[in-house]
Amino acid sequence: MSEVASARLHDIQFFYDPISPYAYLAFERLPESLMGHSVNVRYRPVLFAALLQVHGQLGPAEIAGKRDWTYRQANWLAHHHGVPLDLPVAHPFNPLPLLRLGLACARPEAPGETSRYVTEQLFHHVWRGGQDAADPAHLASLQMGLQEHMALRGRDWVAPDSEEIKQRLRNNTEAALALGVFGVPAMLLDGRLFWGHDALPMMRAYMDGDTWFESGAWEAASELPAGIERKR
Which of 103, 99, 173 minimizes the C-alpha distance to 134? Predict the structure, then answer.
């Protein structure tokens, strides 16, 4: 890695929905993956279900067999990487209250972003402790903690169910779709979209200056013609 590459500030947009175990794993492993680089990570919550709907897809937890595999693999990956993970009482669930809670804590200058701390609270609400992520009492406890966090920083609290917050989430999701995001986690760096927890090493290689990214292989992938297309 050259001195120029190591000194450069990398701006990363991290699109996530706390409903995804892979987004949680990527969030937890991100600091290690970025170690040694100067980075600015912008955490942007989006509604995963809306991305799936636009692309005509089902989520992994909505497909028999794949559902079981998703939980098994997520558990194994957590074990393999030393990341605490407890499956919630039920999954999938409606993540809208969580997404809106996060955006209610956004800074005025970045209304579509959540801080690392707030993002962590959303993920831990789902993937730590094995509780019911949609339980009203559990959500109320999370909101109380986030409100205290905001008060300590002298910032006003905006009601999560307000139209302003709902619009922030819609804006984020629409912006993600416009950028080509089709799933979570998705990390956008220099116009390149890295999808999934398993893309962290690939993104790291790009940041380290791997010459593969200058070979044309990245661009060639989008030029490969489809031999057949199934009717939907």
Answer: 99
Buried b (16+ CB within 10 A) or exposed e, 43-81: bbbbbbbbbbeeeeeebbbeeeeebeebeebbeebbeee
Question: What per-residue string of b and e applies to 165-197 under the rule 16 or more CB within 10 Å gives b?
Answer: beebbeebbeebeeeebebbbbbbbeeebbbbb
SS3 label, residue 194: strand
Specify the DSSP element, H or E, that contains 201. helix 200-207
- Smallest CA-to-CA distance from 105 within 92, 95, 120 is with 120
pLDDT digits (tens, 9 = 90+) for 12-55: 999 999 999 999 999 999 999 999 999 999 999 999 999 999 99
Burial class (CB in 10 A: 0-12, 13-18, 19+), 102: buried
pLDDT in tens, 147-191: 999 999 998 889 999 999 999 999 999 999 999 999 999 999 999
Residue 161 in tokens = 């169910």
Q: Which secondary structure element, helix H or strand E, spans residue 114, and what is its range? A: none
Q: Which residue has the tokens 């595999």?
A: 69
Q: Give the CB-side neighbour count of residue 104, counting CA atoms within 13 A.
A: 26
Tokens of 112: 């579509």
Does pTM surpass 0.90? yes
Domains of the chain and any CATH numbers: 3-221 (3.40.30.10)
Instruction: Tabulate helix, strand, coil % of the chain (nearest 5).
Output: 50, 10, 40
- Arithmetic mean of pLDDT, 119-127: 98
